[in-house]
Amino acid sequence: MTVYVDLVFLSNLTMDAAVLLATAKARRLRPAKRRVAASATLGAAYAAAMFVATVPFLYTFGAKVGVSILMVLLAFGYGGPLRFARHLGSFYLASFAALGGMIGISSLLKYAGSPWELMEVTSSGSVAISFRMSAGLFAVTAAIAIWLYRGEKASVQSRDRLEALLADVSVRIDGQVWRCRGIVDTGNRLYDPLTRIPVMIMEAAVWRDQLPSGWADRLREEPADRLVSELDPSAPDGFAWSDRLRLVPYRGVNGSTRLMLAIKPDAVEIAVPGGNPLTHRRVLVGLDGGTLSAEGAYRAIVHADLTLADEQASAPSQTA
């Protein structure tokens, strides 16, 4: 049997690129074309190498999984364990669907004749029926693909519901603008108790380069008032936003009262899906030292009042 390695490489390059693009569509990603091309080239080179290099390790299950992991990383990046696991699952789903389709089409084309033609007598005298084996492989592949598809479909529906609550957030301070995605939380009723200004929450890591050294990480464990007490207003190289800092009391999960470090911006613009951007100047941005979304889908929690066109709307009588 003659195997043309160049044809193996080109066919796998095309197939891998199609699977990667299908994965990107399922996950609603927009990877760079060069990254998809590089990932598909890696997969095609691996498939071609199996016919050139006599290395038993290339045929093992671990080697195949390792190459697929490298392909997903190269095409879509990491982005956290949960996000990567979903990318990898979608990649396998698209691969299984493609494999099932090829097996199904091959079965239809190969076994279109009489079923007696499917039987052959082996050298040991037994009868082998290739149709049953191919059909079984197709059934297993189809079952796996359907199971993965149903799980991915539920995941897509969950992301659709989440997308409806997401908004584009732009914070402007001293002529500079910081942008991120935020989720509108109708349960967030946090206000500054003195000024009755609504407080939205944002990851401190967004401001890592503007905050004093180490603050973005120390906010996870240390009280906000301790960090503020370390500032020296008379220092020539002091924190430029010292006059913008606020300490906002709030109740933690265990019911205890704590202080949140907040910044008074010049303006905050909120753009919700299907609506016009709303600009608010009476708002505080509270800094959270952790990660608000494990998947990185959003980095801010938007106060419900900031989705209202009238920023002078009356605040409730009690804070939360």
From TrEMBL:
Biological processes, Gene Ontology terms: asexual sporulation; proteolysis
GO molecular function, one term: aspartic-type endopeptidase activity
Keyword Metal-binding found: no
Catalytic center residues: D185
Domain of life assignment: Bacteria
Keyword entries, A-Z: Membrane, Transmembrane, Transmembrane helix
Membrane-spanning ranges: 36-59, 65-84, 91-109, 129-149
Name of this chain's protein: Sigma-E processing peptidase SpoIIGA
